[in-house]
Amino acid sequence: MEPLIEIKNLRVDFALRSGMVRALRDVTLTINKGERLGIVGESGAGKSVLGFSIINLISKPGRITGGQIIFNNQDISKYSCEQMRKIRGDRISMIFQDPMMTLNPVLTIGTQMKETIHAHRNVSDKEAEAICLDKLRKVYIPSPEKRLNQYPHEFSGGMRQRIVIAISLLTNPNLIIADEPTTALDVTIQAEIMDLLLELCETENMGLILITHDLAVVSEVTQRIAVLYAGKVVEIGPTRQIIDNPRHPYTQGLIQALPQMAGGARRLNQIPGMMPSLRDMPSGCPFQPRCTVRIDKCLHEIPLLTAPEDGSQVACFVRQGGM
């Protein structure tokens, strides 16, 4: 398959008063055209930082300090703000967690959608409106002609998120980054939004990076999963393979912590301890303080991802070479 975007040894640092903190540690990923990749991990693993890095939306004092982000044969990690504006919201779109933080409450939906189109396309207002209506229909917004003249507060949470998705589709992007797109929604609406994203990826042949802590959602929507821990990719492979046969102890812990894995009235499994602070990372493998299968080597050396094995890679001295 042809790569859509290649992330190579990406490093992101935050300059704090207490010193430099590394949020992403040599992250390497490839997303192919039309592929759906899930990024999973606990809060603080670096999932959102990775998403923001791709479109250069990291707030100061954070910055990319190493590696490459190759898109259309160009390293966009080195692009200026002006150069990134031509890609961000055009070739690469992002869906954020809270639609009310994305939409301007004092502008109608139509005004906000048209502004997006005019920022990237030289079209008339009538042509822009036709594009808006088409995208609203694609995300199943009823009476789109009427909805264009309404304000965000006149929509439910699920409808607002559909509008945000419609805005992300306006320029027919190659890639959509969805950062916890269903966090603020109830369970039934979550399922509708994820079904919609899946349908749009298949019909529009868009790539999707789905950032979430919900393994159940990822297992239904994505084709591959990358597991992040303390800013590093510790396991990556086909979704079904990761879910059915996780090799890294951290991935195993995440899956065993799902309610359906406990069953009946048994207590939920949980990973002991907490993710280390980025200011005080342990020596060796970052997961070793919480790991139940660690060996001496884990205390002093950082494991690297293995070469692809059945499409799967793992960064674990104990698990390398199989279960």
From TrEMBL:
Membrane topology label: Peripheral membrane protein
GO cellular component, one term: plasma membrane
Pfam families: ABC_tran, oligo_HPY
Gene3D superfamilies named in the record: P-loop containing nucleotide triphosphate hydrolases
Molecular function GO labels: ATP binding; ATP hydrolysis activity
Major place of residence: membrane
Domain ABC transporter: 5-255
Keyword Cell membrane: yes
UniProt KW keywords: ATP-binding, Cell membrane, Membrane, Nucleotide-binding, Transport
The keyword Glycoprotein appears for this protein: no
Gene Ontology biological-process entries: peptide transport
Compartments where located: Cell inner membrane
Family: Belongs to the ABC transporter superfamily.
PANTHER family referenced in this protein's UniProt entry, alphabetically: DIPEPTIDE TRANSPORT ATP-BINDING PROTEIN DPPD, OLIGOPEPTIDE TRANSPORT ATP-BINDING PROTEIN APPD
Name by which UniProt lists this protein: ATP-binding cassette domain-containing protein
Organism in which the protein naturally occurs: Pseudodesulfovibrio alkaliphilus
